[in-house]
Amino acid sequence: MAESTEKKIVHVHLPKEEAFKTTLTAGKHELVSDEPTTVEGGQNLGADPYDYLLMSLGTCTVMTVKMYAQRKGWEIGDMYMELRHNKSHVEDCKTCEDPSSKIDVIEKELIIKGNISDEQKEKLLEISKKCPVHRTLLNEVRIESHISIQ
After folding, report:
1. Does the domain at residues 48-138 carry the CATH identifier 3.30.300.20?
2. Delimiting residues of CATH 3.30.300.20 domain(s) in the chain
């Protein structure tokens, strides 16, 4: 996965008449996001924001692993990622007074079709943790927020 120093720009539009159905645009690509029907007003017309976060991480991971395997000349078949997100109590905080002290946990399972050695498997697991999105999520991220009223 090639890292770019160019600023990435996406657009997100939530029309006044929609509860949560949001249109996401990245260049010429368009996606829809929504809340599930378990959220009042949600229509489940698209993936929710955490789904997109997991999809981004999964996509980056399989692309990075494939690039590495190709450079090494390793024959691998189809790849699949299963990702799960939940909030868990921090291990060293089980006795914390605040019951809401939780941490986000993302579980990644990479499934590779093909005949690879245990050594290759371990190296691909290591590489899977080096995709740019994985590193971004683990690094400190500064978010600069602004608002414009039109």
Report:
1. yes
2. 48-138
Sheet containing strand 29-33, strands side by side: 11-13, 22-26, 29-33
Burial class from Cβ neighbours inside 10 Å (0-12, 13-18, 19+) for residue 65 reads buried
State the CB neighbour count (10 A cutoff) for residue 51: 14
Predicted structure pTM score: 0.86
CA distance 73 to 67: 10
> What is the tens place of the pLDDT at every residue in 44-97?
999 999 999 999 999 999 999 999 999 999 999 999 999 999 988 666 555 566
What's the token pair of residue 103? 């941490």
